[in-house]
Amino acid sequence: MHFPTDANLLFDAARKSIEYASKLSEFAELGGWRKAPYWIRKLKSRCHSVGRLFYYGGKNKPQKARAAAEAYLKLARQLSQKLDKNQSEFEAIAERSEKHHKVFENYQYFKGHLDKHIDLVSRRILEGESIPHVEKVFSLFEPYTEWLKRGKAAKRQELGLKIAIAQDQFGFIIANQVMQKLQDKDIAVPITEAMLRIHEIESISFDKNFWTPENYRKLSQLVQVVVMPKKGKRNQQEYEREHSKTFMALRKQHSAIESAINCLEHHGLNRCPDRGLHNFKKYTALGVLACNLHKLGNLLQEKERILSKNKPFKRAA
After folding, report:
1. How much is the pLDDT for 152?
2. Taking the model in full, what pTM does it have?
3. How far apart are CA 78 and CA 5, in angstroms?
């Protein structure tokens, strides 16, 4: 998955639409798609021209960039019109078998994104409109992908899905949840309830992002000690609660979760090689399992080291 721009996504949609249209035409020996590679080369050239002008520019950059975008959109619209002319033939081909229908479904998906991104590029570049976040797509091949901003200095933004994890006092990850279209505050109570069905929990600690008054109230009814720093200004009672010895001691232990996050990144969760949301969740579970096995192996090695240290040394011959 590459860094998403409207121009790049438009090219992805056009390229895949051409590929699937060519396959459908081969099934029925339809004409008109002999120059499919030419279409792809031409669109790629126009896409790169737009990207170069927007990133590097030069003299008269706005005028040149607008002209390049207009040429790119003109070619994309010509492709869309050409595809529309064959729509009835493609629909007839799709009814022949399950295989043909699957190819047609893929064609429909990318053709829809082709038209959508023609509109988005036109609105953003030619009309200067700011596109609402809800309309944006960050990957045509992994549509569940989200734009993540974690506030890290080295990484201004990332692409993927957030994963929430919970760690016990021994360092093992006992719960995880893939957060598709969810924020931290949305999962605080559900993930706690899920853990309570399996484990006995006396205290639980959260980051500040999980805070809402309703979350704190519900969690206080479920767990004896809830360590959840409040966002914003605190009143006298909240200040005293967050500066109590128990709260501060448990809050200091919370930083241990950072080592678990780093361990997960080193056990495959820095990048998912599998396709689809189902495989993303499966790969996440395998990463958690690998991290726990690593932790267990470290404990067993430490135990063996302590036992061997206490054994008397054999006298040399």
Report:
1. 62
2. 0.78
3. 21
